[in-house]
Design a protein that fits this description.
The chain is α+β, with helices and mostly antiparallel strands and 205 residues long. The protein contains 10 helices and 5 strands; from the N terminus they run αααααααβββααββα. A hairpin with a 2-residue loop joins strand 1 and strand 2.
Length: 205
């Protein structure tokens, strides 16, 4: 299953949850029901355990902008790590370069950060990295290339981010448009409201 590139509001309504990395300019509270002619009926129907697990899994998929194949690979890696598999999965996804650029406030959405990285506008330790799935490490320094530092979209994103809480594991320099990874993110650093245990159960069938 490929990465979703359709209307963001539709996906937020379908999952019935806010996706921090997939923000939309349109308000999401006006229509609570899922999209479609029978959305209200689906909202009232009782959900099976499988459906609940699927929704939690889809929250992660669409929030971080990964395909089903990619998410399964992350889950396999997380299951081999020490500690809680669900927390490990979220930490791996939080450590992706596209998410770091978004959480640092240099892009309005994770979609924008992926585009920025894909066009070669992001440096990691002074070297161009154009892979969104690059996993950062403690001590890494990420910065934008000079030609995009004054881009109106970047400046607007940075200005908006200043009024919001910033991750404690990031040392952000808004003027230089750079960020240092002080430590790997923890489970409590994840903005997405998700029951990762249900995702573990989904993939453990």
């Amino acid at each position: 299953m490929a990465r979703y590139t359709g209307p963001r509001l539709r996906k937020v309504r379908a999952l019935g949850a806010e996706l921090p990395s997939l923000t939309s300019k349109r308000p999401t509270d006006k229509k609570k029901a899922p999209p479609g002619q029978h959305g209200a009926l689906r909202m009232r129907s009782k959900s099976s355990t499988y459906k609940l697990q699927l929704v939690e899994k889809q929250k992660i998929r669409f929030n971080y902008g990964v395909s089903e194949k990619q998410l399964r690979k992350y889950f396999a890696r997380a299951s081999q790590m020490r500690g809680n598999t669900g927390s490990n999965l979220l930490i791996l996804l939080e450590s992706r370069l596209d998410n770091i650029v978004f959480r640092a406030g240099f892009a309005p959405t994770s979609q924008s950060s992926r585009q920025m990285i894909g066009h070669g506008h992001v440096l990691v330790n002074g070297r161009k990295v154009d892979k969104c799935n690059f996993l950062v490490s403690a001590g890494d320094v990420i910065e934008l290339r000079p030609k995009v530092k004054e881009n109106p979209i970047v400046l607007q994103a940075v200005d908006k981010a200043k009024s919001s809480p910033r991750p404690e594991y990031l040392e952000i320099d808004d003027n230089a448009k750079s960020v240092k990874i002080l430590a790997l993110p923890k489970r409590e650093d994840v903005l997405l409201e998700v029951q990762e245990i249900m995702v573990v159960e989904f993939y453990s069938h």
